[in-house]
Amino acid sequence: xxxxxxxxxxxxxxxxxxxxxxxxxxxxxxxxxxxxxxxxxxxxxxxxxxxxxxxxxxxxxxxxxxxxxxxxxxxxxxxxxxxxxxxxxxxxxxxxxxxxxxxxxxxxxxxxxxxxxxxxxxxxxxxxxxxxxxxxxxxxxxxxxxxxxxxxxxxxxxxxxxxxxxxxxxxxxxxxxxxxxxxxxxxxxxx
Length: 191
What we know:
The protein has helices at about 25-30, 30-70, 70-90, 100-120, 175-190, and strands spanning about 10, 15, 120-125, 135-145, 150-155, 160, 165, 170-175. It is of the alpha+beta class. A three-stranded antiparallel beta sheet has the order 3-6-7.
């Protein structure tokens, strides 16, 4: 038993891919058929040109994003250095802050922050600001006379890259005396 081969013709948006109109066939076609065929080819050409332009735009956008955010991994690896410098400076006695070696370390910290800024990486300013979950991650609360949700401490720096949050700042927020009293009342009721 012989299998008959079927000639599959793939279509591209309704036009057959292997549609080859031989010159002899063209002469046999009516003017209306020729016009219809010309319109089909023109439409196909326009669609392909538009698809190509869209592909170019998408590729350019992807390349732009890659360039824009390629430093993200490096930032995440360098981020702890900012915290280490901040921790180190917080433990140095006040009388030694002006010593030569401390000034040298401060210069290194300043150079790191300058390099980050030149690469569109910004440290999120937190202390004294109102808590914003888009930029901050609350890791604790402390009693304070400050308004509720005011950031009191910033144990870990947060960063934005080209305006997008890459690492939220870990913060400790103010808890007013009224909130503490309400919490105590709630705890007493539960017991």
